[in-house]
Design a protein that fits this description.
about 45% helix; globular; Rossmann fold; 5 strands; alpha/beta
Length: about 200
């Protein structure tokens, strides 16, 4: 029997490109607002084959989100992306073999596009975020229902604070890459504090 995954951990299988920066930040902020903790492949350190280490990360997380909205092209070249579908395939295999240990979600920006890009997933209900921050928050609230979920406006308030801090995090860590591990960790710490603040100020219903 494999060890139980962290019940609050969510692996983010997302594109690491400039056009995705705002949605990347939305996922981090939104998951913390819902009492969950995001994880990225960039957290993987040390030696060994990267694919093996990614699989270990998948197994350690109770949930995973696979955003396929930018699979078709990379901002750096015209080459299609295969890393994200590959990691989704690994996740599906793990979930089939360990039904009670993992739940995965597929996100897209356009309705019905998943049926064209990955027809083997027909029957899977993708979460359609329309390529917007508000859409990410809306779909996260649907995927992870809570008794007292912060509203989308509440989440947007936290997002604006995190967005305003991003440049200072980039400067402090000497990078222009928001997916850098040190920046990701700074964003997570801030998002955790913002979640605590929103929950303190949100009245009980």
């Amino acid at each position: 029997m494999p060890p139980l995954p962290d019940p609050y951990a969510v692996l983010l299988n997302i594109p690491y490109d400039e056009e995705f920066h705002s949605l990347y930040l939305a996922y981090i902020v939104g998951l913390f607002q819902l009492g969950l903790v995001p994880h990225l492949a960039s957290e993987i350190q040390g030696g060994g084959r990267r694919l093996d280490r990614i699989f270990e990360l998948i197994k350690s997380c109770r949930y995973s989100i696979h955003d396929l909205s930018r699979v078709e092209l990379s901002s750096a070249s015209s080459a299609p992306r295969f890393n994200m579908p590959l990691e989704l395939g690994m996740t599906i295999t793990w979930q089939i073999l360990n039904t009670d240990q993992h739940t995965w979600f597929v996100c897209e920006s356009e309705r019905h596009r998943l049926q064209k890009s990955a027809s083997d997933l027909n029957g899977t209900d993708a979460y359609i975020h329309d390529g917007t921050v508000e859409g990410v928050f809306r779909e996260l609230r649907i995927a992870f229902p809570r008794d007292r979920s912060p509203s989308v406006p509440d989440m947007l308030t936290a997002y604006r604070v995190a967005y305003s801090a991003l440049n200072s995090f980039l400067e402090r860590n000497g990078t222009r890459n928001p997916f850098d591990l040190s920046v990701f960790e700074d964003l997570c710490r801030l998002s955790s504090r913002l979640a605590a603040w929103i929950h303190r100020t949100k009245p009980a219903i």
